[in-house]
Request: fold
Amino acid sequence: MTGVTTPDLGEPEPNEEPGDTAQLRIEFDDKAVDVRGPSSRLHELTDSMSLTVATVGGAAGPTLALGALPEGTPAWVTGAVAGAQLVFLAYVVTTIFVRRSRRTRSA
Reply:
């Protein structure tokens, strides 16, 4: 039986009292990234991270999908797969920018 093992990196110390500092913690493999900053500016970091993931996904998604198609796949299927990947990417990026503009207008 195989399974995924998660390293024990310990839990970050919770803030006992509310403050103006926010924390973003991302764990992968045996490493962890811990970013702290003013809570009023942390949304910019998460927006940047989302756009970075979307950009990498925009290049890697269609490439990996096309690589997984069997040889002899009709051209229209190949185009549809690549097109669907790019439409999804456009949706994600548009959602990020719409959320950002709403947040800017409400501030």
Summary: The chain has a mean pLDDT of 76.
